[in-house]
Amino acid sequence: MVAKNVAEQTALQVLAIIPARGGSKGIPRKNVRSLAGHPLIAHNIRQARQARLVNRVVVSTDDPEIAAVSQAYGAEVVWRPAEISGDTASSELALLHALEHLAQSEGYHPDLLVFLQCTSPLTAAQDIDGTVQALLDEAADSALAVIPFHYFLWRRQADGDATGINHDKRVRPLRQEREPQYLETGAVYVMRVPGFLQHRHRFFGKTALYEMPAERRLEIDDPVDFQVAEVLIRSQERASRAELLPEKLAALVLDFDGVFTDDKVIVLQDGREAIVASRSDGWGISQLKKTGLPILILSREVNPVVQARADKLGLPCLHGVEEKWEILSHWLSLQEIDPRDVIYVGNDLNDLSCMQRVGCPVAVADAHPTIRNQARIVLSHNGGNGAIREICELILESRG
Questions:
Q1: Angle, nearest 10°, between helix axes 279-289 and 387-398?
Q2: Distance CA 44, CA 115 (A)
Q3: Sheet bearing 360-363, strands edge to edge
Q4: What is the pLDDT of residues 131-184, one digit of tens each?
């Protein structure tokens, strides 16, 4: 069965669709509201693009802002008609419309459809792959992500008496004595496309279950859910970001404007320019230097203030650089450092050439969306406001 599934996976076309309409009465503009430094919808897009078994990611929307954000994070957009964008329109209608549009416009007919809800921002790539794999392993027609459910459910009867729904109230069995039950998370659904087009509903035929970790089950329904999600995402990031650093870290390369600074400049009356730098960042660098890790400042800025700050920190500096990757590649060659063992911290489009080639591209929190999308790690601090301190401490923590 495993060999068959591996062969089947290599040939399957798996499309992920994320429905996201613009109208949200409970939380206005919910789908583009910021959560842990990214619009809500971006969390699903990023995980879908990282999933091994997904070939293509599409957002179905009626909203220009959602469309722009989705494209900035690497998703395609299918425009949804107004008649299926209201409060009462089902998700299935959006999915069917997107499938029909892609079939008519491109002749594209995927084998499997992954339905993701952007109101479940803790969903991980492994949950997406896991749900697809559950469908394949069990030769099922549909699948969904669930978590184990161990609670007792009750209801009131017409006479006012309370009675158990999933248990006999006269008996209190231990958890291990009860038949396993599962709660639908609302995060991931997978369907074989021919069957979905026929039945027009997400559950048909044989249905498989994928058990996702309970800590990743959260749906954004109320404003307070954003606060809870922020705490959980930040906690997960702290636990996992160290694992994203290069295994054999050999150098840290830092852009200047927008990384050492807040990307602003002070212009004096005589035309001279000045910047504001963070002493906290300087402290982080001083601690990291003690480990002997090479640190380089690489900047397009020609102002001598860059070199002055580098001298203050005791760091080598290459500034006034137009083609950043060409210069960085030469420097790494001289140092006999493999680019795969390098962290590069940037904030804007001129950093893209370097970030695409090093092992660990890192973006400050207020970086350009394209840069955040390219980054392996997105810091929680803005440039000039603790971002460098954050990456330095992350490296130090990873080294014990």
A1: 30
A2: 11
A3: 317-318, 295-298, 251-254, 342-346, 360-363, 377-378
A4: 999 999 999 999 999 999 999 999 999 999 999 999 999 988 888 888 899 999
Q: Which alpha helices (DSSP H) does the chain contain, by range?
A: 2-11, 40-50, 64-72, 91-106, 125-137, 193-199, 223-244, 279-289, 305-313, 324-335, 352-355, 369-374, 387-398
Residue 339, number of CB atoms within 10 A of its CB = 19
DSSP 8-state class, residue 62: S
Q: Which regions of the chain carry the CATH code 3.90.550.10?
A: 2-240
CB 371 within 8 A of CB 347: yes
Name 276's Cβ contacts closer than 8 Å, sequence gap at least 6.
Answer: 261, 262, 264, 266, 384
Residues 304 and 320: their CA atoms lie apart, in Å, by: 9
Domain 245-398 superfamily per CATH: HAD superfamily/HAD-like (3.40.50.1000)
Q: How far apart are CA 300 and CA 170, in angstroms?
A: 75
Question: Is the whole model's pTM more than 0.70, yes or no?
Answer: no
> Domain spanning 2-240 has what CATH number?
3.90.550.10
Q: Sign of the CA dihedral 108, 205, 116, 7? A: negative
Q: How many CA atoms lie within 13 A of 254 on its CB side?
A: 30
Give the model confidence (pLDDT) of 89-114 as tens digits.
899 999 999 999 999 999 999 999 99
What does 266-308 look like in DSSP terms, one character per residue?
Answer: EEPTTS-EE----HHHHHHHHHHHTTT--EEEE-S--STHHHH
Query: What ranges in 203-289 are assigned the alpha helix state H?
Result: 223-244, 279-289
